[in-house]
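User: These chains co-purify. Model them together.
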Amino acid sequence: MSIQDILQTMDYGPAPEDSSIVRDWLARHEEGFGHFIGGAFTAPGETFEVQDPARGETIARVSQGTASDVDAAVAAARKAQPAWAKLSGHERARHLYAIARHVQQHARFLAVLETIDNGKPIRESRDIDVPLVARHFYHHAGWAEIAGDEFGGTEPYGVCGQVIPWNFPLLMLAWKIAPALAAGNTVVLKPAEYTPLTALAFAEICAEVGLPEGVVNIVTGDGETGAAIVGHEGIDKVAFTGSTEVGRIIRRQIAGSGKGLTLELGGKSPFIVFADADLDAAVEGVVDAIWFNQGQVCCAGARILVAEAVAGRFETLLRARMETLRTGDPLDKSTDVGAIVHPVQLARIRELVGQGKAEGATLHQGHAPEGCFYPPTLATGVEPASVLSTEEIFGPVVTLTTFRTPADGIALANNTRYGLAASIWSENVNLCLDVAAQVKAGVVWINCTNVFDAGAGFGGYRESGFGREGGSEGMMAYLRHKTPEGAGADLPKPSSAPHDGGGTGSIDRTAKLYIGGKQARPDSGYSYTIEGPKGPVGLAGLGNRKDIRNAVEAAAKAGGWGKATGHNRAQVLYYLGENLSARADEFAARLESLGAPDAGGEVETAIRRCFWYAAQADKFDGKVHQTKSAHVTLAMHEPLGVLGIVCPTAQPLLGFISLVLPAIAMGNSVVAVPSQLGALAATDLYQVIETSDVPAGVVNIVTGPRDELARTLAQHDEVSGIWYIGGPEGARMVEAESAGNLKQTWTEGDGARDWSGAHGQNKGFLHRATQVKNIWVPYGE
Amino acid sequence: MTDHQMLESRTAGGGSSSSGLLPAALETPKAGRNPVMPLTLSMFEGHAVNRSAAERRAATLGARRSVKKEYQAAWLVNAVRCVDLTTLAGDDTGDRVRRLCAKARQPIAPRIMEGLGLGGMDLHVGAVCVYPTMVPHAVAALEGTGIPVASVATGFPAGLMPLDLRLKEIEWAVAQGAHEIDIVITREHVLRQDWQALHDEIRAMREACGAAHMKAILATGDLQTLRNVYAASMVAMQAGADFIKTSTGKEGVNATLPVSLVMIRALRDYGAETGYRIGFKPAGGMKAAKEAIGWQVLMKEELGRDWLEPDLFRFGASSMLGDIERQLEHHVTGRYAASHRHAAS
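Assistant: Joint model of the two components:
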């Protein structure tokens, strides 16, 4: 094309990124890549092909990790871990700093390799992915340096098994490896089958910087290899980023194993445009939301919700903007939308869009070349029930739906199983923060979207998973509080036939269940015997699944508690302590009848605990993270919602108090299953609860067979988290059943912990009772 | 490995035609100059402009598009066509202006033009921009070239002169042969949001311009907020501006991409309402050839191909031309160039 011709068209022309250095590197590995285990590459085993999706050609062969490969990798990581953890924070920081520097020095190599392997535009790998990778290692070099000061009372898990997805191959690796290493763990990581190459290049960097052997191990392979890592008995903590479907499988697979688990799963994030928004800015936001990385982004703003008042104008602007998007060769510097990662994914996108069209959606599509490409797509006329509204497409497809009022918009935003991210567009700070508080999402971007920084936590609510990556909350995912170990035991079935012990001589008392602020008879119509050392001391209601259902319903209606101020909640907790104190003798007598060794002490500690959590109610606040310039990034502690709490057997009053108080102090409402054997110590409490201004439904008590009630709680989709202190089989069951809605779980062996000491009261309980919402607020006029 | 070449035929979208990009009313614009319309507050009051979003868009635009090799050369040549070659200095003299005009007539050395395959092209800059008293010198020096002379006027750069004197200044410059008048607005009217006063003033200036085209300098560095920029842009267009221009070059902050983004979105919105196409001129502080590409990318991405022509787009710059000439020589010879080997302006 002559310059004269170009002056007519003023086209951009080709602007290819030179890939020759990376091609040479690939050619040198033509025989195939092995795994990186114990600081060295293994010989290639059975291999599979890795494709460049844009060109549809094979670029490398990598090894399919076998069980024995995984064994070797876990053994290497195990061997390396004690020495790695024993290094001073400063020494670990030097290693992470070296990795950060070398990532920068190899920045273009990594960007080009990522683009060839994944199909994402070079602009993104060059300007977004790789700089964020370097930033993540820098940031965590810092955490390694100061972890000893900042995270007292914690220890690394040990060996982490990490499985990452194909959408941000190197960035997800960084999000996994950097905090794990900073905290003193060693890792076995499996990159995605479609995109293993930058992980292997990263392994070479680990060798280049002299990272101790075995600290980072990379095993390539498919889902089977991933399952072998996750299920390996030598793994102490599992971290997974990927689909909700696989997250569920992993949750079930490792249930009862005692392994730590964090999951970063799918999303269907709302993108809410209010009438007073800068509409051009919001349109550009859509580009960043769904036409970033071909829409293969877990937090992609995939559902545009736009105020009816401006919907027409917004759609016009958006469709005009779609005209200038360039889809094509990801190695071209002028490409906006690259290749879909793999033909299988392309087929999935086509199928879902086809279904949406069949359901009546209207499609507005940009342009895409032949091959593994999909055009930017806007779907209008989409109803909330449409597959396009509910399913995560993981492609460049966005829906547009209108809303009438802020409340309507929020309701539509939250009408999803997921809760990863949300984007809010309005020039009204009152509206923005109001909506940010109400939307169920771990990350909220105001007047921006898909903004990331290592200094802020990232992770979801609901079925988008749990745990955070980045910031101090991300470090907490790789550290555990030192807790006493013990397996607990299964409990006998409650005896529900009349017993032959005599009466006490005083007026007979009936312990009922406590649901929605009212005493309730058990649905079963049965009671069971509570035994003391000197024989039966009374009857407790034999709760069943319907009682749990009713209790959860009552708890869900008590959502206002979570919006009350910390001061309000503190007042209630203080009052609870006051009223408990007034009846201290009565509770001591009850505990004594149940055989408590130190009844008076248990009551006294329970009262003090009321004060301690009252004190925390308005002090366990979030943070303002240091992220990007001209941004306030708020990390807010929010309650989980409805929390199921299955209490320990011993110390029936203190165990109940120690778990329920932190939960309600943070704004959760609770369905508590008290000690099965000592239930009367807890049912006595409902009169105290009633007189202490605890709003109806905030605390619900269902007595009965521990594990049967725990199962119903674990299975309940309205319950956001469950704490289970019990036996090993119950713990396994609770974790497995929690997979239904991916509720957060915490299980511990019954009897392992002494509830009267420091282990019975600390900030760890508050962390478990909250989830962190990161709200990004850019500013400037 | 098989074919590592570019997938040239496999990149779709971002087409060169502006079809679909522009509002319907601008696809087939009305003929003739933008007439004066009454002040219409509804076209800008309450219009939100989010600064951080504008800055993000501006920052990523340059990274989203790249022109290489002959395309880069073509884009630089096109930039030359759109330059308002400017001297606005206290020590301007007739000879100085004549020298500038010589450069305007032949902005790129013939040997470079030959090397670019453009030997037959009559390449010249968009206009020569001077102070009013320099207009006669420029008009004489450019006679027969078709290069218009632009004059600043209205008490440039601050504009704080009685209105009748400012209008007389316009009339005088036009009488001396200026084809284009770059007026400055009274910033006070914007800062006080006295839109009627602003509209009245610019409308009067437009009348004084007569057949000469009017570029309204908003002095955005003084207006500060992007909401002010949008509103002032809209009022200037309603009052009959043919072009809106960012800066005098004398404010603390001159042309920036975020400000330009807001101004061209305003002219797009104005066009959507009225059907008239308005031109845009960033001015001040642009020195590098790379910036010449960056601004053209902004125009093409936001408004399309037509805004890469001098009737709708001008750069107010002086030293940028020198850098463009050096880059073009490098394209031809493969060697890096030195400015002392090019004709001074």
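The first strand of chain B starts at residue 12 and ends at 13.
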